[in-house]
Amino acid sequence: DYVKNETSALVWDALYSHIELYYRSFPKEMRDMFQKYVQFLVKPAFLRATDVQAWEKAFFRVVESVNDRAVREPVFDLSWDVKLPAVKTFSSEVALQVLNRSFDARIIPSEVQTKLWCVAVSTENPEIFEYVYNTYNDKKDAKERAKVLESLMCSKTHTTLLLNMILKNNVAGSKATLKVEIQQFMLYHWPDECEDILSFIEKNKDNIVEDDSELEEFQDYAVNPPTICKNKTLEIFGNITESPVNTFYDDFGQEPLNWLVNHQNEWI
Fold first, then answer.
1. Which of 8, 37, 156, 224 shows the greatest Cβ crowding within 10 Å of its Cβ?
2. DSSP-assigned states of every residue in 15-61
């Protein structure tokens, strides 16, 4: 539990990487328990990383240390990945205040800016989505547009629009690049949005792959399709596999620790 008071960016960055691996390896029935435990650990750090007064001081007059700036990103990312409720509440409140011109968007640290707007967009508030979408269209610099597009990708109700934006943004016409970007999109949006994803790929496959055999490269991103998408998934990608329920033993050589069960009352 010492990490609750940890302030080192290097430590939080390492924790973020390892916890991601642990979480994927846990059997499904224990993931919620593990998630609540990590929420318990990361919440104090998240509150420190989202201290708006510190943001204001850093923007207007105080020079922050490299660590103080760097620690925000892994803490914010980890908090979002383990679904800490405070992340969505904080991000949507800041976003709405920006929209209402009661919050200066310039003070949002660059380390959390993209993810903060991503989380705000994920609330599916139409005003927030429209604001970020218009921001994307107003940007002229390619790198800045890419960051805003990354935030837009966190919406799960604009699937076809977002996929078409990825296609349009691929100005070089690189099929290899487009293929990777769609696979990354599927990591977050599959299987909930499988119908729109499959429809898009089927319609635009000539822009995505050189020939149909390359569609097999999407199999690892299309695991466990729901019944409504299963036949179409098989038709487009070929054989698909069911993701393993429990890889913890394979990854770590032991079963998930009973410690989680025995101590869960401490953080629930």
1. 37
2. HHHHHHHHHHHS-HHHHHHHHHHHHHHHHHHHHHHT-HHHHHHHHHT
Cα separation values, 254 from 246, 259, 266, Å? 11, 13, 24
What pLDDT does residue 244 have?
Answer: 62
| List of long-range contacts for 105-113, beta carbons under 8 Å, 24+ apart | 106/59, 107/52, 107/55, 107/56, 107/58, 107/59, 107/60, 108/55, 109/55, 109/58, 109/69, 109/72, 111/69, 111/70, 111/72, 111/73, 111/76, 112/49, 112/50, 112/72, 112/73, 112/76, 113/147
**Pick from 166, 245, 259: which is nearest to 204 by CA?**
166
Percent of the chain with pLDDT over 70: 91
For residue 31, the model assigns a pLDDT of: 84
Q: Are 194 and 226 in contact (CB under 8 A)?
A: yes
